Amino acid sequence: MDYLIPANSKRSLLIFGLFKPFDLALFGIGMATSILLLMILSPANFLFAMLDLAPGLICGFLVLPIPNYHNTLNVIKEVYKFYTTRQRFIWKGWCVKDELKQK
Predict the structure, then answer these.
(1) Which of 8, 18, 27, 47 has most Cβ atoms within 10 angstroms of its Cβ?
(2) In this model, does residue 102 exceed pLDDT 60?
């Protein structure tokens, strides 16, 4: 029995159709860290305010949804895996020699 599964069936497993629990936890930790830094350091100028907000902004960027991927974190993981693991691509196309072998 072959079943046709709709392309969007996996979205129903995600929170709000976009996020995994890890994504929300990562974003929550980043935002909590930013809020703590803002309360503790009380930035006096723009540079220190941006440094205080950096954890929340970075985590927000990492969980940002991207088409054809889950989010930016997955894209970064895939790029890292592509450039660090040994790749071996086997290409087998149509060839006259292959046709002669089968006869």
Answers:
(1) 27
(2) no
